[in-house]
Amino acid sequence: MRFYMKSKLFVFLVVLICVVSCSKNPIIIPEFNTATEQFLFAKNLKDKGIYEQPKGKDRKIHDRAVTQAYQNVIDRFPDDKKVTPLAWIELGDIYFKLKDYDKTLFYYETAKHQYPNQDDIQCRALFGTARTHDRLKNFEEAISLYRQCFMRFENDSRPYLAIIGQQARINYSRIRVQ
């Protein structure tokens, strides 16, 4: 009976430790008064991770915090036309880096459809969607999107869009093997 009680206590403690250590701790992101402030908070948090290079569990916590910070921009300021579109693109970029391609496509595609008149968003969303399809080995879709991107932006007078357009042409020209 005594062994049974000890083993039962042991199992309980193991389960308790697993629940406590495996549960996701809540991350509380401060709320700012404007979309720009909220976006800058998210960007600074992302940049902090680049400089500090957290590892292991700290990296996962940092990545969760950054995604939540950008998501707060989208959730709190859905009508903003200046930085909320950038938050959609940033989340696409982050999920691409994390290799969560379903979420990557969701964020890029949403940005593409919600902001059709913003060239910088269209350019980055086209290029990001193309890269994602390339990674998923959806080569025909990737090639089509790269082509759209470079045809539209390669010779753009805005250098940052032209650079993305030129990179799209380079990626378009790569040989792919299935």
What is the structure about, briefly put?
With 178 residues, the protein is mostly helical. The chain has helices spanning 2-22, 35-52, 56-76, 84-97, 101-114, 119-135, 139-153, 159-172.
Topology diagram in text:
Layout: H1 2-22, H2 35-52, H3 56-76, H4 84-97, H5 101-114, H6 119-135, H7 139-153, H8 159-172
Helix pairs in contact: 2-3, 3-4, 4-5, 4-6, 5-6, 6-7, 6-8, 7-8
Characterization of the model:
- The protein has 178 residues and is an all-alpha fold.
- Helices cover 75% and strands 0% of the residues.
- It contains eight helices and no strands.
- Helix 6 (119-135) runs antiparallel to helix 7.
- The termini are far apart.
- The model is unreliable at 3-23 (pLDDT under 50).
